[in-house]
Amino acid sequence: MTITDRLTRKLRGAFGSEAADDMVGWMHGIETQRSELREMNEANYARVDAGFDRLEQRMTGVEQRIGGAEQGISIMAESLAHRLEAIERRHANLLKWAMTFWIGSFFGTMVALAAMKASLP
To answer: Which of 19, 28, 66, 98 is close enough to 15 for a disulfide, judged by CB 3.0 to 4.6 Å?
Structure first.
C-alpha cells in the first residue's frame, strides 16, 4: 500500500505538517514491515515446501524397501508352507509305519500266546 500525495496533503491539512509527516513515516514503516514479513513468509514457505519434497522422496524410498521386504516375506512364507507339507507327509508316513509295527507286534504276541496256550496241558 503506497501513500499517495493526496492522502499526505489531507493529513497535513487535518493534523498539521509535523503530525502528518510522523503519520506518513509511521505508515511507510508499517509498509516496509509488511513487505519484509511477506518476504520472510515466502522464504519460509519455500523452505517448508522443500522439506515436504525431501520427506516425499524419503517416503518413496521407504515404500520401495517395504515392497522388497514384502516380497522376501512372501518367498519365506511359500518356503515355510512347502516345509510344513513335507513335515506333514513325514509324520503321516511315521504314523503308518508305527501302526504297522504295532499291529504286527500285537498279532505276533497273540500268536505266541496262542502257541503257549496250545502247548500247556
So the answer is: 19
CA distance 88 to 31: 83
CA distance 7 to 65: 64
Query: Exposed, middle or buried by CB within 10 Å (0-12, 13-18, 19+), for 6?
Result: exposed
- 8 Å CB contact between 24 and 3: yes
The dihedral built from the CA positions of residue 11, 15, 18 and 22, taken in this order, carries a sign that is negative
27 touches 3 (CB < 8 A): yes
Give the DSSP letter of residue 34. H
Residues 4-40 have pLDDT tens digits of 778 777 777 887 878 878 888 888 888 889 889 999 9
